[in-house]
Amino acid sequence: MAEKKNILTYEGLKQLEDELQDLKVNKRKDVAAKIKEAREQGDLSENAEYDAAKDEQRDIEARIEEIDKILKNAEVVVEEDVDVNVINIGCKVQIMDLEYDDILEYKIVGSTEANSLKGKISNESPVGKALLGHKVNDVIEVETQAGAIQYKILEIQRSN
């Protein structure tokens, strides 16, 4: 079975590459020094610093492996090529909640990059999925546990 493609914007790709570099160059070295220092304290069977450093090392190696897998299957969206007449991955959108007149802004990204605290929603999320392919002035409806929410699309633009 083919592995799922990880859709990334250029910004998301760059962030992952930078994180990977930092993990490999800095974090590995830092944790190795912590392990060495803890070993020098003697008995490892009751050495909390050693155990903590080994746990940190395991987490770092797991994250490196995770990022390697993401990058291996990455499909980068060329944001300059994104058609801003319809909503696609890589677009910034401004929408209005028709019930409360709240105006919201989101960047549509692949699930790997999604971070709602930074206004980045996944193309696979309920709102992201509902927005894809729609145009300015379209009204979309998103089903939630609390009921249906209607949004009007106010603006679509490239995110860069």
UniProtKB/TrEMBL annotation:
The protein, known as: Transcription elongation factor GreA
Example of a GO MF term: DNA binding
Ranges annotated as spanning the membrane: none
Transcription elongation factor GreA/GreB N-terminal domain: residues covered: 7-76
Key words of the record: Coiled coil, DNA-binding, Elongation factor, Protein biosynthesis, Transcription, Transcription regulation
Boundaries of every Transcription elongation factor GreA/GreB C-terminal domain copy: 85-157
Superkingdom of this protein's organism: Bacteria
Known role: Necessary for efficient RNA polymerase transcription elongation past template-encoded arresting sites. The arresting sites in DNA have the property of trapping a certain fraction of elongating RNA polymerases that pass through, resulting in locked ternary complexes. Cleavage of the nascent transcript by cleavage factors such as GreA or GreB allows the resumption of elongation from the new 3'terminus. GreA releases sequences of 2 to 3 nucleotides.
Higher taxonomy: Bacteria, Bacillati, Bacillota, Clostridia, Lachnospirales
Keyword Chloroplast in annotation: no
Transcription recorded as keyword: yes
Family membership noted in the UniProt record: Belongs to the GreA/GreB family.
UniProt feature coiled coil, ranges: 13-70
GO biological process: DNA-templated transcription elongation; regulation of DNA-templated transcription elongation
PANTHER family, alphabetized: TRANSCRIPTION ELONGATION FACTOR GREA (PTHR30437)
Species per Swiss-Prot/TrEMBL record: Anaeromicropila herbilytica
